[in-house]
Amino acid sequence: MSTPPEERIRQLRDLIRHHEECYYILSAPEISDAEFDVLLHELEQLEAEYPDLVTSDSPTQRVAGRPVEGFETVEHLVPMLSLDNAYSEDELRAFDERVRKVAGLGDTPVAYVAEMKIDGLSIALTYEDGRLVRGATRGDGTRGEEVTANVRTIRAIPLALRRGPRGRVEIRGEVYLPRASFERMNREREDAGEPLFQNPRNAAAGTMRNLDPALVAKRSLSAFTYQVVTDPRDALKGVPYQNGRREAATADAVTVGDGLQTVPSHQLEEGGHHQSHAALLESMREWGLPVESHWRRCVGIAEVAAFCQEWADERQTLDFDTDGVVIKLDDLALREKLGSTAKFPRWATAFKFPAQQAHTKLLRIDVNVGRTGAVTPYAVLEPVFVAGSTISMATLHNAEDVARKDVREGDTVVIEKAGDVIPKVVAPILSLRPPDAVPWVMPTTCKECGSTLHRDEEEVVWRCDNPSCPARIRRSLEHFASRSAMNIEGLGESLVDQLIEQDLVHDFADLYHLEPSQLENLTVAPRDPKSERAVPRKLGKVGRNVVEQLQRSKANDVARLIYALGIRHVGEKAATTLARYFRDIDRIMSATAEELQTAPEIGPVVAESVRAFASEPRNQTLVDRLKAAGVKTTTDLPEPTVDPVGPLMGKTFVLTGTLTSMTREQATDALERLGAKVSGSVTKKTNYLVAGAEAGSKLEKAQKLGVEVLTEDEFRDLIMRGQA
Ligand code: IVH
Q1: Does ligand 1 lie within 6 Å of residue 326's CB atom?
Q2: Is any ligand 1 atom within 6 A of the Cβ of residue 117?
Q3: For residues 608 and 568, what is the distance between their CA atoms, to the nearest angstrom?
Q4: Mean predicted confidence (pLDDT) in 669-675
Q5: How far apart are CA 140 and CA 155, in angstroms?
Q6: 345 Cα nearest atom in ligand 1
Q7: What is the pLDDT of residues 64-114, one digit of tens each?
Q8: Which of 96, 151, 238, 671 could disulfide-link 167, Cβ–Cβ 3.0 to 4.6 Å?
Q9: The CATH number of the domain covering residues in 91-352
Q10: How many angstroms does the Cα of residue 83 sit away from the middle of ligand 1?
């Protein structure tokens, strides 16, 4: 007799969840992707045949949501607190002493659980009777954004708990992007000419706040959970814990699992009936929740310190970014006794790993000439392995930086790699300095063209002012061809070098006169990353492709061209704004600085820079020649959406700092829809400055000029009122 459909559907769901766990939580798949797809497909077909049997927690229903307009704000069961930090073993010991003192434990060693601190974004998952009903971001700790549709696409997060708490519970944890997925995603973005994410955390945060669950599903986010919060009132109503079958509960006591433990309900706040965090983590794993597996129960702070020490180096082996270890008191009843401050629990702290450092020899200090003529020193190092990769160069920022640190050629130096930034030279080790080492001096002439370098009074950067400097032209051409500019595939560093060396190209317009035959016969020497040696080869077909790419690039929107021209202070955003507002490059070239500033978000600095560019006869000829070559100089992008009769009409806003609840683009868009103008710089004409986190000089200027400053909350209020 064949299995009834209900039964087979149940079997398939269990099987699929089992394999999702193996794959996404344990990283130990038992079947191939193809075999997994067969199961999923069978379930999809059965559900199509018996639509009545479809439930929201079926694995077929992960991407059920459509793009949403915005996220709802929701309140957390209890506030999501933050963690106090410890940066050294001494600070860890101080934490332990406080804990023992408050707990009245004297010298008795305390048991802690040490867990990886996952560098993602915190999430609160609400399960009702074992079913995932809501996912919310941390937000301000009290209220977050409801991102359920996005959360459901994360395969590590069960849509239904296998067993465990009934009633309502909030499971908390961290959503993160595995490093491998991060790298893949950035490669794809690079290919598509999209801006790259700085690090996996930003990528995960950006993804979670995306309004389209289908896109989120493609990003392979993952998650770990580490906390269970229950509402004691809920716990009394039903049967909060169940292992396999339901048990009866009495009014003030809750029967747990196999019925062995009966605990008063007041202990349900944190971790339900569990007495220790370690036991809770084990249960969570059994319920089917993703729990990071490297946690360890440590008795006494010395064991904790050893764990932190161990992972400071070992963390490179993990598939996710971690910036420290979270240390939590294991005994849940003791936790209650310790309680929390307004911000942090007193029973936990986060040990932050030091930035990863290494020592190596500084072979020489060289300088790099950028496309704007900025000359920046960098250190050429004896290759050294640090934080997962080999480093042979590090930035030295500017001449002042070198002098301040007194870094010299021949020094042994400390270098540091801190997550998302390029390695930097921290300091020389003076005891290892060779006796003949001399202070470094900035060259006075450009190493490429011999022009005298010059520096403005108030600037720290030295510049080569020769617009025909070959180094500047090389960098400008590379920028012109780059993915976010004209996107000319194949026109990279080594080909640009050759084009200049062979005297084939002197400016951007020359590129459009290249013949396939000229390129086919060029010999380039791309660096082979494996052999570290230049390997010369004839371009051949690749050369022909570059010419095709050049032809294709003529049809690019003028926004790309404006950015590609490399006008100082004109990034992608400003270029797009200028294109959308002025429609045609001729209008931009002939606009006064004042006219330029009528475009949204274009301030005096950008306006002045564009005008300086446009007033150079050389640049006027360049634009004319580009046009003559057939490069598109108009836009098809929509005009900026400034509502001429909106409630904020005539008001000028400046945004600064980081907004937590929306992106800059969303904020600008919302303001423009209400008729406001968003400008890039604070002037007397500015009506409001919206100051997000870490606002800097613009905030100071606004305060000096008496411009009204809005916090993010006030700003959101204003927008909300405007929309209403
Ligand atoms: S426990 C009451 N455990 O770190 C605080 N947090 O800096 C409970 N985090 O907001 C947090 N990994 O988003 C805890 N294993 C871990 C964690 C972790 C990452 C995050 C969490 C928290 C932030 C505090």
Answers
A1: yes
A2: yes
A3: 10
A4: 82
A5: 26
A6: 2
A7: 667 777 788 888 888 899 999 998 999 999 999 999 998 888 889 999 999
A8: 238
A9: 3.30.470.30
A10: 7
- How many angstroms separate the CA atoms of 703 and 139, rounded? 28
Give, for ligand 1, the residue of 295, 326, 335, 352 to mutate: max count of ligand atoms closer than 8 Å to Cβ. Answer: 326
Confidence band, pLDDT 50/70/90 cuts, at residue 214: confident
Domain 470-553: CATH class, spelled out: mainly alpha
DSSP letters, 312-379, are: HHHGGGSSS-EEEEEEEESBHHHHHHH-B-SSSBTTEEEEEPPPEEEEEEEEEEEEEE-TT-EEEEEE
**DSSP SS3 for 7:** helix
> From CA 719, how far away is CA 724, in angstroms rounded?
9
pLDDT at 244 over 60: no
Q: Is 117 a catalytic residue?
A: yes
Tell me which residue of 469, 572, 567 sits closest to 193, measured CA to CA.
572
Q: For the structural domain made of 357-438+460-464, what CATH number should be given?
A: 2.40.50.140
- Quick: pLDDT tens for 421-459: 578 899 999 999 999 999 999 999 999 999 999 998 888
Answer whether 558-628 and 652-723 agree in fold.
no
**Whether the predicted pLDDT of 482 surpasses 80:** yes
Please give the structure tokens belonging to residue 131. Answer: 């079913």
Q: Give the pLDDT of residue 419.
A: 54
Q: What is the pLDDT of residue 556?
A: 93
CATH superfamily of 5-61: Helix hairpin bin (1.10.287.610)
**CATH number belonging to domain 652-723:** 3.40.50.10190
Domain boundaries, the chain: 5-61, 91-352, 357-438+460-464, 470-553, 558-628, 652-723
Report whether pLDDT(331) > 90. yes
In whole angstroms, give the CA distance from residue 636 to residue 209: 28
